[in-house]
Amino acid sequence: MYFVRTASAKDLPSIHRLLVAAYESTYVPLHGAEKVAELNASWNAPELLASLLADTAGEFLVADNGREIGGVAYASPSRKLAKTAGLVKLYVHPERKRQGIGQALLAEIETCFPHAERLRLQVDVDNHDAIAFYEAHGFAVVDRTANCGTDESGIPALIMEKTLTPSPF
Asked: How many percent of the chain have pLDDT more than 90?
């Protein structure tokens, strides 16, 4: 059984390995090994992961069973949109999919931003499994972008959004 908790610095090597494996499994068939190696080198670089962990405005979560990290999630308040949190990463190890890990991480991340009214994300237009997952969890397509993640990625993406239940506090 996996438990969701806040990530710590000691988790960073495991998080990095999980993200590399998840990107290779998910994106090599869509974009090729060279593009995925480029994405892993920039989007999942250990230094970047450490900076996300250090971001006090964001929330970095792991699903941990005491022996391994089975999934990760990272979100932070949007710098551009009021009352919106952005889900930047939600990945489950390829060998641990369909065990409720992604659902548990998403449910927890939704509670981490009590003043947010929306949770927004970008998802590769060809990542049909992820699109179906997000739609099943209440997200809807609100826009598109030609560059998922960064202005130069060249990866078309859907922008999806979910209305969050406001915190009573």
From this structure: 83
The enclosing domain of 31 has a CATH number of: 3.40.630.30
Residue 169 lies in a domain: no
Residue-range definition of the domain harbouring residue 12: 3-163
Q: Tokens representing 150?
A: 């960064």
Measured CA to CA, the distance from residue 169 to residue 164 in angstroms comes to 14
The 3-state DSSP class for residue 69 equals strand
Determine, yes or no, domain membership for 75: yes
Q: Are 42 and 51 in contact (CB under 8 A)?
A: no
Between 41-50, 67-76, 148-157, the lowest mean confidence (pLDDT) is in: 148-157
> What is the DSSP secondary structure assignment for residue 32, as one 8-state letter?
-
Residue 25, C-beta contacts closer than 8 angstroms, at least 6 positions apart: 94
Alpha-carbon span 21 to 9, nearest angstrom: 20
**Do the domain assignments include residue 168?**
no
- Mean pLDDT computed over 110-129: 94
pTM, two decimal places:
0.92
Strands 84-92 and 118-124: parallel
Q: What's the structural domain count of the chain?
A: 1
Please write down the HEC assignment for all residues of 138-155: CCEEEEEECCCCCCCCCC
Q: Which residues of 11-24 are buried (b: 16+ CB within 10 A; e: fewer)?
A: bbebbbebbbebbb
